[in-house]
Amino acid sequence: QVQPVESGGGLVQAGGSLRLSCAASGRAFINYAMGWFRQAPGKEREFVAAISRTGGNTYADSVKGRFTISRDNAKNTVYLQMNSLKPEDTAVYYCAARFEHGLGLSSFEYDYWGQGTQVTVSS
Length: 123
Prior knowledge:
Blueprint (H helix, E strand, L loop, with lengths): L1 E6 L2 E4 L4 E9 L6 E7 L6 E6 L5 E3 L7 E6 L4 E6 L8 E8 L13 E2 L3 E6 L1
């Protein structure tokens, strides 16, 4: 199994950028597809981006063209580069892992979750 740990959140002005990192402790990171989700106050957790074992990826429409997901298997780490941030991107961002090859778009498809990192975008 793996244990994801997020970092890199913070406060940024609208239009700015942040890069989130998710370090996954444990063995065989390459066997896990990874995903990023977010949850804003009073809202349900929503899908942001996912990356397969081999680097295929997909994004929510709300972040497409602004966010980029990537992974470094040598470092057991997945990244979420967030550009052109908007106030509506404000949320707790969670990293998740699933022991499958394909992309998972729903939270129930993931087996392991991090504790989350806060991203706040001011207007």
